[in-house]
Amino acid sequence: MPASSSFMPPKRTLMGPGPSDVPDRVLAALAQPTIGHLDPAFQGLMEDIKALLKYAFQTENRLTFPVSAPGSAGMETCFVNLVEPGDTVIVCQNGAFGGRMKENVERCGGTAVMVMDDWGRAVSPAKVEAALKAHPEANILAFVHAETSTGALSDAETLCRLAQDHDCLTIVDAVTSLGGVPLYVDKWGIDAVYSGSQKCLSCPPGISPVSFGDRAIAKIRARTTKVQSWFLDLNLVMDYWESNGGARSYHHTAPVNAMYALHESLVMLKEEGLENAWARHQTMHEKLRDGLKELGLTYLVPAPERLPQLNSVMIPDTVTDEAAFRSALLTDHNLEIGAGLGTLAGKVWRIGLMGYGASDKNIALCLNALRTLLRR
Amino acid sequence: MPASSSFMPPKRTLMGPGPSDVPDRVLAALAQPTIGHLDPAFQGLMEDIKALLKYAFQTENRLTFPVSAPGSAGMETCFVNLVEPGDTVIVCQNGAFGGRMKENVERCGGTAVMVMDDWGRAVSPAKVEAALKAHPEANILAFVHAETSTGALSDAETLCRLAQDHDCLTIVDAVTSLGGVPLYVDKWGIDAVYSGSQKCLSCPPGISPVSFGDRAIAKIRARTTKVQSWFLDLNLVMDYWESNGGARSYHHTAPVNAMYALHESLVMLKEEGLENAWARHQTMHEKLRDGLKELGLTYLVPAPERLPQLNSVMIPDTVTDEAAFRSALLTDHNLEIGAGLGTLAGKVWRIGLMGYGASDKNIALCLNALRTLLRR
User: Fold this and answer.
1) Domain of A204?
2) For an engineered disulfide with B29, which of A28, B225, B264, B335 has Cβ 3.0 to 4.6 Å away?
3) A350 labelled binding-site residue
4) pLDDT, tens digit, for every residue of A194-209?
5) What is the ipTM of this complex?
6) Is residue A302 part of a domain?
7) Which residues of B touch A5 (CB under 8 A)?
8) How is B117-153 classified by DSSP, letter by letter?
């Protein structure tokens, strides 16, 4: 047996692609005493979380709730419920997560029509429109709003309008966008959306907020085959998360303490105000951008397509061992930034400014640490 | 918007079917600062958790790790990876969770051959043997070791031997048994097993420890179809949880803080010693049983088949509104006990003595509260 003593994590500053820094209030909420998942007090909390998530997503969708598992499971919840064998889904890929969407479509027995854009660029509405025209059999359009692997922001409003013009439902990955940049589920007519707790909501990882509109629910209700996942089957989950005035039916045991934390993070978002949170992310992004420029670092993503909360910068030629550089940031400064993923591995660093971590203090720490190590 | 103020849960004593009481040490671990899921410190924690889970499961299985989602997802991990379309699975049902196994088999395109026993009784080895003989095409036997819905303990050792005699793999639900009663994954030759964090491990709900042996892994590697779930695909998860000396490949973001808590609960189990924990559950069960007898309460399950950690008692005729009775326990005594599930709804109460909650203090509270309310 290895050492089996209590674990004391180091105190890091988390400026990677997530998890992001978790405020003390949220950590304290996490450690409140566990109660039963069918306790009336917990049921009240579930209702509050649903209402707060509606605010965060800017939606009146009745079916808005947190999936009891990480963002990947939120993605899968959307696909396994909405995609039936025989469906054609137009999947936009401009980074790592579009590829995961393709995997999901195919494992549901659907056909994925790929619309490819360069890693680091927004999804091209012109290409999407061409694909919609070329594939009238398509009934779903899926894309990533904020690509965590590159830092590119796509024009979700335009993409959703195109989908609607071609009678397609939309599945939108808002893992990194929720709480960080404008996202209007109802105004833009998004049919299904998923996010994660560990990005701009500043919560520990493990929970995936989702929301489904009426057209999405109608497609789920009209399924002729069972959803392949029992755990993620919305027909069952709906009975658990919606009391409809009656008794909730037991589906699975909700991660009670994780819900305390999610609730507290949503309360903090409500206190700040969604628009103020978006504006803070933008302001902090500009401060970081100016500081990075002074250090001679350049962005992967063109300015108009940049996510404020995820800054991908090109690794300078002077850095010969980028992994060692990130290790030094971690060891000497307790600062975590992200490596590049996939085709961008070894080429970019990803610097997160998410939620609570989008702060002057974090920017100062990051710029100082980069300055120190780049001078070596 | 509803009230969006911080949530302060009531302080309950949890003696239902789970979640069970969480010790302060585990809650404190949960609230440690979040670090990155690829941080070297977190990777070290992952290795410690795997080693401690091997101890808890009594296995040397390399593929022993916690699924980042509740027990239902642990169950689904076993079925979606091991069952391919065309497989025949003998599923034992003696309570609610055997029915869920059937759902899983069918959603994987398999055929479930059901072996039915009364709710409240152990699985009958004779019936299982007959089914194995009648269905030589079956390649998997699935059963629940400790039925949380009834409090019955089945003879996992004998059932596994029967499966081996008929060249079947075994999938065993150990959600409520792990840490509470003897469970020997290697000695009994269990091929795939799943559990939950919120029962005898005394952790908050949300995580499902699993373990897979070599024969199970061989079947997964020999699949001709992709696992229908991307999130639960062990081919991908293995690369994340097994470093093999190289870099871990990113699969999903692990629920970092939940892993802190799981680790601490496993450290506590190791400190006490597995055999001591099993003995404590048995001792406390006998104390509770004697007290319940004094109150005139009788058990659903015959003595030799009883789970120490889950005590299902018949609701006495004098209690005309059992839901109101449980509400009074909750309101007047802050005590949660469980209702009956499925066919046992309204007929039994389920009193848990799980993990940290298997204590003299909890038994005294429970017996006193029942005595007070039954006298009314």
Assistant:
1) 24-269
2) B264
3) yes
4) 999 999 999 999 999 9
5) 0.97
6) yes
7) 267
8) --TTS---HHHHHHHHHH-TT--EEEEESEETTTTEE
